[in-house]
Amino acid sequence: MKKFETLQREYLNILSELDESFINEKYQNSKKDEGLSGLFLASEPENYWFAKNKIMVIGAETREWNVKLDTEYSLEQYLLSSVEKNKSFFQKMMNEPRTQQITFHDFTRAIADRCGRDGLIYSNLFCFAWNAKSPIKTKYFDQIKNVSFKLLKAQLEYFEPQIIIFANGSQNTVYRREIFDSKLYSEGQDYINEGISKNHLYQFLFADKYQCYRIQHPSTIRGRKMAISARKKLIEILPSI
């Protein structure tokens, strides 16, 4: 069983290379003044290493993710606060009532009910948002993408999920493939014979290690009827508790 401090140290190593203006809102010329959100860092469920099903959901959530410190700024304290914010927020989402809505966390709750919540990791393709939207069009995107992918790789190496679910939208396909090279896909399968297009649900093995599923973002508007069918099918084929 691993200790989460191992991942936290790797977080710290990665973030120490990032200009402080991206994280410290009191820093001169802080990027927050231009629209940058707080930092998103995946946390670890209490009983993760005992979970039957270990699943990482990689979204493209664009919340503010504001991280407030009660003490003077330090990167380590900021990091701990960011992790705790992710953990407490996700626990709150898991405890929300089950509905028939199509938000991102209606989807994660459905996965938890099917597969168990102890092994469910809530991650993000990008670790920052911009004005509560995607950071893709910002002039700092290359820096954001670089640190995001380093953090995501660290999470994969630490958590070693059995399953990865990509739920981050078609606009992010080109960036997702930068970190998850399609040349390393194998055993691809679609569900066209069940009336679900490949664009809405596709499964494959990545790097001979991770069983992956790709769907549209849960709140997608385009092709919503098929997107709902795809999500229902995915929940059906995921392993039960």
Overview of the molecule:
The chain is an alpha/beta fold and 241 residues long. Helix content is 35%, strand content 13%. The protein has a six-stranded mixed beta sheet with strand order 2-1-3-6-5-4, sandwiched between helices. The longest helix is centred in the middle third of the chain and has 20 residues, at 75-94.
SSE topology:
Layout: H1 4-15, E1 55-59, H2 75-94, H3 104-115, E2 120-124, H4 141-159, E3 163-166, H5 173-179, E4 185-190, E5 201-206, E6 210-215, H6 224-237
Parallel strand pairs: 1-2, 1-3, 3-6
Antiparallel strand pairs: 4-5, 5-6
Helix pairs in contact: 1-2, 1-4
What features would you highlight for this structure?
single chain; alpha/beta; 241 residues; Uracil-DNA Glycosylase, subunit E; 6 strands; globular
Overall mean pLDDT:
93
Task: Please state the overall shape, judged from the principal axes of the Cα atoms.
Answer: globular
Beta percentage is: 5-15%
CATH topology name, in short, is: Uracil-DNA Glycosylase, subunit E
SS-based structural class? alpha/beta
